[in-house]
Amino acid sequence: MKAITIRQPWASLIAIGDKLYETRTWPTKYRGPIAIHAGKELDILLATTDHLTACGITPENAKDLPRGAVIAIADLVNVWHIVFHPGTDVDVAKHISIGAESMSTDKHAPDFGDYFVPTEKEKAFGYWVPGNYAWELKNVRILPEPIPAKGRLGLWDWEPPHICGTCGYWEDFQGVCFNGDSENCADFTNRDDSCDCWQHRKEQT
């Protein structure tokens, strides 16, 4: 599984669903599950914003946030380019100070010209500077307990524990696997609750 290291308190804000975009100076073509790893460093420069306080994070308790561990799993669904005056409609764009545009260059692509304007809270939780990129994260699953891991720069590979060899599900956070290949698997026959690999195997028997 791909992972990304993010300083606290931003990693925890992603984990609890208050930060929807991770801003970076570089894009990626990767899409899919991504582990949110809280780095060992605490970003104290921005830790006094009202938006952070509203989320329950203060300079006093920020230092107690988990660090040096994977704390959540998310799905990286898109990467946007941060620009001044986003969009293809000049009359509209001139009234938008900053936003994020689709990276599609194909004028026939369905997302060509798409853009969004970040909320004030989102801007307070990232580096919304033209030229940077906004990584859109969805379906965030906070882990029951942080899993210690050594962070790295860029995207890196992290192997979570308790992987089912057939379906790839990690039963600790994605629910019980149903194909009989891991310790906590169940003999369950509800197709809606079973993984594709398990379904395929049952169909072949």
Give a verbal description of the structure.
The structure is a single chain. With 205 residues, the chain is of the alpha+beta class. Helices cover 18% and strands 31% of the residues. It is built from seven helices and eight strands. It has helices spanning 10-15, 50-54, 59-62, 90-93, 120-124, 171-174, 196-204, and strands at residues 2-8, 21-24, 32-42, 69-84, 98-101, 115-116, 133-148, 155-157. Strands 1, 2, 3, 4, 5, 6, 7 and 8 form an eight-stranded mixed β-sheet that branches. The longest helix is centred in the C-terminal third of the chain and has 9 residues, at 196-204. It is globular and about 50 Å long. The two termini are 31 Å apart. The model is unreliable at 172-176 and 187-194 (pLDDT under 50).
Task: Summarize it.
By secondary structure, this protein is of the alpha+beta class. The protein has helices at residues 10-15, 50-54, 59-62, 90-93, 120-124, 171-174, 196-204; strands spanning 2-8, 21-24, 32-42, 69-84, 98-101, 115-116, 133-148, 155-157. 18% of the residues lie in helices and 31% in strands.
